[in-house]
Design goal:
Elements: H1 8-20, E1 37-41, E2 44-45, E3 49-50, H2 56-68, E4 72-76, H3 83-86, E5 95-100, E6 107-108, E7 113-122, E8 143-146, H4 151-157, E9 165-167, H5 178-187, E10 193-197, H6 198-208, E11 212-216, E12 227-234, H7 239-251, H8 253-263
Parallel strand pairs: 1-4, 1-5, 8-9, 8-10
Antiparallel strand pairs: 2-3, 5-12, 6-12, 7-10, 7-11, 7-12
Helix pairs in contact: 2-8
Domain Solute-binding protein family 3/N-terminal: 36-263
Organism: Roseivivax sediminis
InterPro entries: Quinoprotein_dehydrogenase, Solute-binding_3/MltF_N
Length: 280
């Protein structure tokens, strides 16, 4: 996807207007709306976001909009190829609530949580005490995993891919949900375990599969890492807007943590080595 670039004609108009204005306070950005908190989001990406506002990213967006005293509006687009190009880069919105740190298509704010991939097993099953993919108890078991996701490398290293069941990575969530399909197969006994990104697996288990156990994979050795710091994404060059969001994150981190914890998102420290407990 191409990097965002403003149209020269638009910049020229803004420069002319600025040259005729008197002293004013610093503006967040020429492109960031001052009248609404405009969020780019996937309309069918529950438990993170959906059009009904039920995802934890929706609730974080609502919190920030309230603190900014601006109405919350959305630009909906599937989280797939073209997402940034058709939303943030097209100036149809000003922030993506959840984006992995270091992604080159956006400028990242400070991270507002760190999470990790998880192993999900029946709570009372024979694998209920497993805490790592290197555990011999997993040998020969049918384990669901999203194709191309980082845990696959660890599973291969531990000889677990021969019996694994791969689920598609790139899908339009309006029509199919590999994570929900995986957990349904686990519930039906077609799988012995499932490996999912914590912010997806944790909330789905809490909502739909109370007899399952979510185990954060914080004890894995070797690359690739299984924990990721999650930020908000803004357009490149919008430093003042990024600093404003960073300030909001810092001042309201406890409220953000409470939303994540209530949703069932497993939180870990910044190095992915310890589980973080949030007081309710």
């Amino acid at each position: 996807m191409p990097a965002w670039a403003a149209k020269p004609s638009g910049l020229l108009v803004l420069a002319l207007l600025a040259s005729q204005a008197g002293p004013v306070t610093a503006q967040t950005s020429d492109l960031v709306s001052q009248n609404a908190f405009r969020v780019c989001a996937d309309p069918a990406n529950y438990p993170m976001s959906n059009e009904a506002g039920e995802g934890f990213e929706n609730k974080i967006a609502a919190l920030l909009a309230e603190k900014l005293d601006r109405p919350l509006t959305y630009e909906w687009f599937p989280m797939a190829t073209g997402f940034i190009r058709n939303t943030l880069a097209a100036n149809r919105c000003d922030v993506v609530i959840g984006y992995a740190q270091g992604h080159e298509l956006v400028q990242n704010t400070n991270h507002y949580f760190t999470s990790v991939y998880t192993l999900i097993v029946p709570e009372d099953g024979e694998l209920s005490e497993v805490t790592a993919l290197s555990d011999p108890a997993l040998e020969g078991k049918r384990i669901g995993v999203i194709a191309g996701s980082p845990p696959g490398n660890h599973m291969a290293r531990n000889g677990l891919m021969g019996d694994a069941e791969a689920y598609r990575l790139f899908v339009d969530r309006r029509y199919e949900s590999p994570a929900q399909d995986m957990l349904a197969d686990l519930d039906a006994g077609e799988l012995d375990a499932a490996v999912l990104w914590g912010p997806i697996g944790g909330p789905l288990v809490k909502d739909e599969h109370p007899d399952m156990k979510v185990v954060p994979l914080i004890a894995e050795d070797g690359p690739p890492r299984l924990f990721f710091r999650i930020t908000m994404g803004v357009r490149r060059g919008e430093e003042v807007w990024k600093r404003e969001l960073n300030s909001l994150i810092r001042r309201h981190q406890d409220e953000i943590n409470a939303i994540l914890s209530e949703a069932g998102v497993p939180l870990v420290n910044d190095m992915g080595t310890e589980i973080v407990e949030v007081s309710q």
